[in-house]
Amino acid sequence: MRIFHVLLVVSLLIFGSLSSGDEIVFSVLNVKVNNADDMSTLRHLGCDIDIVKDGWARVYIARDDIYKIGRTGFTYYVLYEDSRDISNWVKVDPDHEKRDPYNLDFTSYHSPESLYDALVELNTNYPDVTRLYQIGTSVEDRPIWALKITDNPDVEEDEPEIRFIGLHHGDEKISVEVPLYFASILLDTYKHISETRELVEEREIWVVPMMNPDGWVRNTRYNANYVDLNRNYSYMWNPDEEPHCGEYPFSEPETCAIRNISANGYDYPNTFALGITCHSGAQCINTPWNYADPPEYPEYSYHPTPDDEVVMEIANRFAEINTTPGFWVTNGCEWYATWGDCNDWSYGERSCIDYTLEISDVKTPPENQIITYCKYNLTSLFFICIASDCGIRGRVTDADTGEPIPANIEVAGIDWTWYNDPLYGDYHRILSEGYYDITASASGYIPQTVYDVYVDDLYAPAERVDFQLEKSVSTSKAIITSNEIKSSVECSLQCYPNPTSGYLNIGINGKLDNLKSIAILDISGRVVRSIDISSGYAEGNKILVGVDLSDLKIDDGVYIICIDMNNKTSYKKIIYTR
Ligand SMILES: [Zn+2]
């Protein structure tokens, strides 16, 4: 019965609020109460008290407000989803009597060995929708496992991919249990509840519950080389600031295991849309950026990514749904800065919005609280799976052959390049509600832009925009394909407005005498215009040049400003839209 209530809470909390329409649906809950203060608190949360018996209050509350009960720290379960029909719960899960036995045990922490047994059990019970992969081996020769959950698990499909990681830090044992519990509930319900079935059928979910098995056995933060694995990723890796970041980025086999499922050119080249890395020591969700970048973004300042609007929208919604008492939201750098962590690498290099979830104030809570923390976080992890299909999605293919092309995806007004999945060509550009111009470009192809694409809210399925790119005449290689090159020159070169429809201001840090040439290139490296630099003038340490592009006979799309300063070349991408 206990599990049944968990499932009801799962389905009600995540999905109940999505389908209520205009009419407010009230649910009936049993809530544990200890004293008059509890009763007063319940009323202030919007509960109507029905009866009180044996320390339990039966209350009515708007279905959309159930999450407030858990957030406030009450123990409760749902009696009836819809108070108008007390037999309604049968419809929520008509097959509950026939459900497969619920096998995993969460009364004690999973060791590397018992975790392996649990993953094998899930894989054995649900062979049609799971694959178990050894994605790496730790310093002390322990296997690192990933469970992939999706229908047709051997076929690469056009689906958002989501990644859940536990135990970067070996002393944060609860971070193994929460993603494992999520996986077990997802698998235990998908045959019987249409909403979870949709996630198995329409998503590809990767769960790595224990990436640091040596740290688990040693009960230490670090791996067996005394490296803090969450400082060992390549983006902004910083040995000046981080004492245990490893000899070089990805020096450790455990971080290599994560790269092995997350980057092109490795065994499982996924492009994850959303990710959660689980930790403990606080009770919050932490958004990128985590690194500090003084003077503009020193430590303890809010350091947003270019996608901060949707990053924060998802984090705030995650926190609303999460029932951990006192759960909060913070920007990583504003809380405290870290360099070379998984979140920043995922967003910085891999087009993945990745969050740090801090599960519990106590690093490793008593074993009888494992299930409590698993339940606190369950619905918000389901929400991440739902939200992975918001924004704009589609495929980028060759117009002649129909084959997928590795492509860059640019959204006007958000200065950050995303990549598609090279295996199937699909991209999943997560965005907040609004209208967007989106451009796909690829080396050797003519870029394409689609304008005014309407994106609905986080719960609406993503808008589909497919690109069939035509080969460009020039076969020269694109000059810029990565964010790293772009960010390395941004400090010395500004272009605005960007996107531009004609007039463009170029600002260059440096002396006017050193400016040799300015050229505009297309994405394949072909010069479409050389700019007359005699119109440039100095202002302080800066050179300003105004350029009129309105007479250029070029297609809308991504172009590159190429500046030669004393034979040192800088680049900047612009989007040209007529
Ligand atoms: Zn941690």
UniProtKB/TrEMBL annotation:
SMART domains: Zn_pept. Belongs to the peptidase M14 family. PROSITE patterns: CARBOXYPEPT_ZN_1, PEPTIDASE_M14. The lineage of its organism: Bacteria, Candidatus Coatesiibacteriota. The active site is at E358 (proton donor/acceptor). GO terms for biological process: peptide metabolic process; protein processing. Residues 108-388 form the Peptidase M14 domain. One of its GO terms (cellular component) is extracellular space. This is Peptidase M14 domain-containing protein. Coiled coil: none annotated. Keywords: Glycoprotein.
